[in-house]
Every structure is written in structure tokens, then in C-alpha cells.
Amino acid sequence: MKIRDIVNRDIVNLSNCEHEPIHIPGKIQPHGFLLGITMQWKIDFCTENVATYFGISHTQMLGKDFSAVFGSEAQDEILAYTNGDEFRDAFPLEIELLGRLFQINIHKSDGIYVLEAELLFVDREKLADAYKQTIQFVSQMNKTTSLKDLCALVAQGTREITGYDRVMIYRFDEQYNGEVFAEDCREDLEPFLGLHYPHTDIPAQARELYIKNQLRLIVDINYEPVPIYTVDDKEGKNLDLSLSILRSTSPIHVEYLQNMGVGATLTISLIHHDRLWGLIACHHYSEKNLSPELRLAAKLQGQFITSQIDLRQSNDENISAQKTTLALEQLTSLELPILQESLETILKAPQLLEICNAAGVSIISRNKIYKRGLTPSDEDITALIEEIIAKEIGEVFTTNKLIDHFPEIAQDSNFAGIMYHSLGNNDHIIWFRPETVTEINWGGDPEKSIVKDSNGLHPRNSFNIWKQIVKNQSSTWKQYEINAAVQYAHALHNQLILIMLSEEEEKYRNQSEILKETNSELENINWISTHDLQEPLRKIQLITSKMLSEINVISTESISNSLEKVSKSAYRMSGLLEDILKYTRIKNNRETFQEVDLNEILEATLKEMSEVILENKAIIESEKLPEVHGIGFLMKQLFLNIIQNSLKYASPDRTPKITITASQEAVMMHHLFKVHCHWVRFSDNGIGFESEYNESIFKIFTRLHTQEHYTGSGIGLALCKKIMQTVGGDIYAEGKPGEGTDIILYFPCDPADTLLPI
């Protein structure tokens, strides 16, 4: 029978320590021995050091029945243990083998029972003592609220229970870089608390083993590995030691610990949501082993942490999360008008930044950018959105390191973190965070964690603090912040949809109003064409017919009078047609507005009307008028009609006087909604009118007085109404019979606002 060892000797040929097959080293630590037994109870694997325990060599054991070497009673006892509830339990099997007492851990590996035996501890701690310490720890644990406090307590408790010189709670980040999150150590030792270590210190396959096997001991870091031998009956025969207690440690890791001056270690895995969250790493600066009871007690310390991670992290974040929740509730409960202008109100609310603790935010809607706080330029925001859309990232995108995704945009910007949400219809919302420059203390240069030379791979031998300055990234977005932003993005999306639907409804309503008004105008135009235009035409026809019938007897004076009457009727027809043409030329839409100085408009109007004003001996007084958004020639037409109307209906009992006043600052106009406006008031001392005509006076062809007393088509004030509608404003009239008339104009400060349907 041929026998060979299964020692893995390929480590020196590795180019990366993550390729190291640490689960099949073919060796164990020497504080125990290992047997690999087949399902037929033949000894198929055996460590070289069995002779030191029994005086029987490994070559004598291999290939033999277990009972032939250790007796059938021992085999039956082990068989009962493997078939019982205690198999793979926390407590090893206590058994006598060839006259010596051992503690045995058993697990299966590829159809092989792996027996790992250590001599039974003579002065081991009693279970009751470990239980007492655990109860005391639980009592103290319940007094902690934060995860950091709990980890600090676990570090202290683990050190008290196990007696190691240093106990660290080691926490991983998303890339498995580690941080010493909590620590308890001898007073004479330099603390490692807060130090960071690169992910290469614990490579991927080591992390995988920590998940499979949650407790690992190195009793003496300077141990001589014991090789495992097997019956050489097939090619490539090996033994997977992933679940082994005695498994020999990677020589790279051993050298790493030796460089740190460590003599013995205990490592307990902290597994959270099936992921390696961290480790309890215990260091001793001389040899050290633990009894099964203390191993169990130490393992329980790790389970205390993992069972509390969600709760304690929730407690840690609870205050901030509550603030975020409150901000979200306040923001979504704002009473907003269903108008595009509501975005301005939203931006003014401090809760828009508080819901995700952002420094700035921008809402992009209808190609307009609304901003608050620390934000990029409009050009950068537009470029960022174009890049996000081009890369088809999706409706939601979050990062605290924008430079990794959009380097060209991030390198010249004042922000490093963004949270982006699409709002549909080419609308977007983006929250921003500035760069947070961070200083990280590493336990040695992370770029020199592994060195390769002619003898193979080696860990770094310097653990001096190496400071790293991290730039181009913001603080990390917490999950509760992301959740709050998502919820509000949905609410804002719904608000924008309501605005769009409301505007469509308003559009159709306005069109209906315009159609109704247009039909009314057409009816009035039809009436004036059949009445007012026909009346002077009938006069012309009557006069000319009479002249023709009396052509031989009519006097020159009579002809002159008749022709004068014809001329007046024709002039009236011409004026009426000209007014109708002016009225119909004013479009029911918003032209491109410009800033119009009403002082210049008034000056030009008075200059044009100077002869009429002089003829009526009228007095016109005015104060400073505002600048408004409008169309210059329409504003002049507006002023002409109002002043002409005042002069036309002047009182014969007094000198005509027109006083023009205006608001010097914008005022709030309470109409269908609040709009900031400027007002201009024309007050005359004319004949006035009854208040019941305040509205009807602006209807086309409306005359409150007979044609015999006051000439005119009745279009003047209707023309003024239409001009004010065109500029999005409004016009009102107030009259008192015998005292005068006030005409008040309202001009919106924002050209996007409107006071009337247009």
C-alpha cells in the first residue's frame, strides 16, 4: 500500500494571494491530530503527529478499520454522536481513546468523516462560569443603544471571558476594506481603534471560509504545520478542510501576523444577512488556547452583535430618520395650487433638502431649471441629464462619487454626490451633495499590502499609520434618505401630472370662453352692420334721392346743407368701420412681450391728443407710472381710448379733469389665484354712470347714452378690455352718476401670469 502526503506546495507560484487554495492546505496545526474516515469506517487520512499521542505511526493507521485501531466501543460512541442531535453542535465529543481523554469535533467533507481531536483541558473553565459571565454581559448589553456602544461592550466582554491581550471588532465596508470599529486591549499596547485595512488583508476565499466556519483558532503563530497523509489510491486525492478547527493557516497570513508581533489569535465571524459583516479578532502576544466552553462563550459574543445589528443601526439612524420622515410628511402635506408656479413654493420649503440631507436640489420641468441651495450651473445640470439619459441608467440613479460615472462633468463641478429621479415627460429632480474631503488612517500602505519576490508572496512588514486623503466623493446616501427621496419624487411626479391636466382643462375652458365671446362679438358686429351702418346709409340714400327728385327747384343753399348731412353720415360710417377693424385686428393670443415704460406711452399719447385736450380745455395730472410687460402700440391705443372716453363723456358743468395714479410697488391681486400686479387708475370728473353697468360697459357696441347726445360706436372700452386680455391683465370701471368715472388697469408683474382667460 502506497502512502503520500497531500501538502499543497504551489503557493510560491501564485501571482495573487486571492488564488491561494487555503481550504486544501494538506496540513494542520500541531495542538491536535486529524483523521479522515470513510463511510465504511476505514482510516483514509491521518496526520503525521498521531504517534506523539498513541505511539502508533500514521503509516500503521492508514487503511485500517477504525475499530481495529481504537476499539469498537470508541467507534460506537462516535457513531452515536454523529447520529444524534449533538453532531456538529457547539460542544465537542468527550471520549477516551487508547487510554487518553480527548475532545473531538466531527464534520463531513466530500463523503469523509473528519475527526479533529485535542487533549481534554485539565483545568478548563466550568460551563456555569461561562454562563454567569454571559448573563452579566446580556444585562449590560441591554443598557446600550448604539451599535458602536454594543461593539465596544462586546470587545470588553470577549477580552474578559477569553483573556486575550487585544480584542477588536472589525467591520467591513462594501468593498471589504476593514475598519477597527471597537477595541479593548492591554493598557501598554498601542491602540488600533479607527485604523483601516485594505480588502487584500482578507482575500475573497478567506472571507468565504469565514462564512462557512465561524470560529478559527491559531494557538501558536510559530507552529510547525503537521502534514496530512493518505492512501495513494487515486490521482489528485485531497481533503477539503473548510470546516476544520485545526486547519493550518495560510503561510502568507502567518507571516502577516508575525510581522505584527502576534503570538496567537482567535477569530469569530460576524455574519449579517448571509454576508460577512465583520470579525471579532482576538490577538495574544504569546501562545494561547481556549477550552470548548470559552470558545462557545466567545462565539456567543459574535452572535450577540449580529442579532443586534439591524436594531442598533436603526437606533443609530432613528433620530435622523425621524427628521427625514417628518420633513417628508410636511413637504407632501403642503397646500399647493395646481399650477406650474407651485414649483417655486416647493423650492422655498426647507424640507425639500431635509428629506435626504442634501446641500442643493434642482427641479427641471418644461425645459426650465428651478434651483435651491448648493447646485451646479444650469449648463452642468443640462449636461448631466443628457449623460444620464444617453447611458440609459434608468429612472433612479444614486452615487456619492460622481467622478466614477461622469468624470468630465464632475471634475470642474462643486458637487460629488447626486440622487437623480426621472419625473416623466422630460422632467427631472436631482439632489446634490458637495465633496467631503476625508482623512483615513490605514494600518500600513494599502498599495503595498502584498509583495511578490522570488520566494513567493509576502505581506507587508510595516504597519505604521499611513494617512490617505480621499477626495472627489460626498458623504454616503443613507437608505432612509434614498427611500424618502423616492417617495417624494413620486409625489412630485403626481403634482406635475395634475398641473398638466389642469392646464389642459383651463386651455379648453379658455377656448370655450373665447369662442363664446367671439360668437357674442359676431352677433354684435352683425347687429351694428344691420343697424348702425344702415342708419347713416339710409340717410345718405334719402337725402340723395330727394336732391335728385328736386334737382330743378332745389336751391344752392339747400344742396349745400344736404351734402353736409351726407358727409357727416359718411364720416360716421367711416369711423365705425375703422373701429371695427381695430377691434378685430387685436388677436386673442400673447405676443412676444417687452418692457414698456408707461411714462413714455402717456407722454406720446398726450402729445398726439394735444389739440383735442386744448380744445376741451382739459386738465390732465399724472404721477410716475410703472414699467409693465406689454406691447408698445397696444398700450398707446389703450391710453388713447381711455382718455378719449373721458373727454367724450365730460360734464358740461365743469372743466374736464383726468388724474392718473399708479402703484409704486407690486401688489397682490386676489383673483382666481394670487398674482403680483401693478395697477394704473384713470379718474375723471365726467358724467359718470350707474354701478350696475360696471361690467357691461366693456361689451362691444354697448352705449349707455343715445347717439343724439354722445357720438361713438361703443367699441372704445371694449377695445380696452381686449387689449388688457392680450397682455394677460384686467380692467375694471367704477362710476358715480354726476361725479365721474374711474378706469383701473392691472398688469401682471410676471409675463407668464394672467388674470383673465386669453
From TrEMBL:
Domain Phytochrome chromophore attachment site: 146-303
Protein name as annotated: histidine kinase
UniProt xrefs under PROSITE patterns: HIS_KIN, PHYTOCHROME_2
GO BP, sorted A to Z: detection of visible light; regulation of DNA-templated transcription
Lineage: Bacteria, Pseudomonadati, Bacteroidota, Flavobacteriia, Flavobacteriales
Enzyme class, spelled out: transferase
The species this protein was found in: Flavobacterium nitrogenifigens
Domain Histidine kinase: 528-751
Reactions it catalyzes: ATP + protein L-histidine = ADP + protein N-phospho-L-histidine
A UniProt-annotated Pfam family: GAF
This protein's record includes keyword Kinase: yes
Matching InterPro entries: GAF, GAF-like_dom_sf, HATPase_C_sf, HATPase_dom, His_kinase_dom, HisK_dim/P_sf, PAS-like_dom_sf, PAS_2
Stored SUPFAM superfamilies: ATPase domain of HSP90 chaperone/DNA topoisomerase II/histidine kinase, GAF domain-like, Homodimeric domain of signal transducing histidine kinase, PYP-like sensor domain (PAS domain)
Record key words, sorted: Chromophore, Kinase, Phosphoprotein, Photoreceptor protein, Receptor, Sensory transduction, Transferase
